[in-house]
Amino acid sequence: MGGTFDPIHHGHLVAASEVATEFALDEVIFVPTGEPWQKVGREVAPAEHRYLLTVVATAANPRFTVSRVDIDRGGATYTIDTLRDFREMYPDAELFFITGADAMAQIMSWKNVDELWELAHFVSVTRPGYVSEDFGRTKEISLMEIPAMAISSTDCRERVREEKPVWYLVPDGVVQYIAKHRLYQPDSADSAR
Ligand code: ATP
Ligand code: MG
């Protein structure tokens, strides 16, 4: 499951957990992005913070792990590169790529989209505020309805900036990590915005 995870929230975790159960996955690997090329116009928290937030949020689940491949590759993250790297690391694994409906629509807008289907099966989960579409690719993309979590990282960042709580939207450890490093606060050296 790729994402900016800026910060990781319960929408991400429910999506991962639901897909893992439905498809009997051995492991869900969270892959925080390097430079988020489609998020031009806003700064993103440093990769190291996003990586550690993801580790903190997933540490208790024995099936959840975090990969640094996109961060360590550097530069813009393209899902095709992520999947090629995983195919090389796990040549015999059956790979799934978990996305929300909004991210699936973005992926479908790429020009080299057809290369993706050989690398992984895509699972597009429902997300409040977005329409779920299989884009006529029912073999390559599974649509899955999951409990509606109207949570976004954008909203979490705004809430921190406005001194509103993010308790229960993100895991407790993420609330504490954000406070410790003063992320997403306008006066913070650590924060990107
Ligand atoms: P931002 O507001 O910064 O874009 P985000 O909440 O959309 O953050 P991302 O890191 O962009 O989070 O998303 C990573 C993946 O998780 C994407 O595939 C996205 O569609 C999916 N996702 C994020 N939030 C939810 C949610 N509440 N329900 C279902 N899927 C989600
Ligand atoms: Mg997003």
Automatic annotation (TrEMBL):
Belongs to the NadD family. Catalyzes the reversible adenylation of nicotinate mononucleotide (NaMN) to nicotinic acid adenine dinucleotide (NaAD). CDD domains: NMNAT. Its EC number is 2.7.7.18. The lineage of its organism: Bacteria, Bacillati, Actinomycetota, Actinomycetes, Micrococcales. GO terms for molecular function: ATP binding; nicotinate-nucleotide adenylyltransferase activity. It catalyses: nicotinate beta-D-ribonucleotide + ATP + H(+) = deamido-NAD(+) + diphosphate. PANTHER family: NICOTINATE-NUCLEOTIDE ADENYLYLTRANSFERASE-RELATED, PHOSPHOPANTETHEINE ADENYLYLTRANSFERASE. GO terms for biological process: NAD+ biosynthetic process. It comes from the Bacteria. InterPro entries: Cyt_trans-like, NadD/NMNAT, Rossmann-like_a/b/a_fold. Residues 1-159 form the Cytidyltransferase-like domain. SUPFAM superfamilies: Nucleotidylyl transferase. Keywords: ATP-binding, NAD, Nucleotide-binding, Nucleotidyltransferase, Pyridine nucleotide biosynthesis, Transferase. This is Probable nicotinate-nucleotide adenylyltransferase. Pathway: Cofactor biosynthesis; NAD(+) biosynthesis; deamido-NAD(+) from nicotinate D-ribonucleotide: step 1/1. The gene is nadD.
